[in-house]
Amino acid sequence: MLAAVVAGLMCCMHATAQINIWENTPVDKNVELTPYLVEGTGNKAVVVCPGGSYFWHDIDTEGHDVARWLQQNGISAFVLRYRTAYVPAFITRYRYIFRGNRYPDPQDDLQQALSYVRSHAQAFGIDPEMVGAMGFSAGGHLVMSAAELFSPEERPAFVVPVYPVVTMSKPCVHKRSRRALLGEDRVGDLQLRDKLSLEQHVPEDCPPVFLVNCKDDPVVDCHNSELLDSALQASHVPHVYLQYQTGGHGFGASDEKGTQESRQWRQAFLNWVEQLYNHYLSQK
Question: How confident is the model over 179-188, as a mean pLDDT?
Answer without folding.
Answer: 96
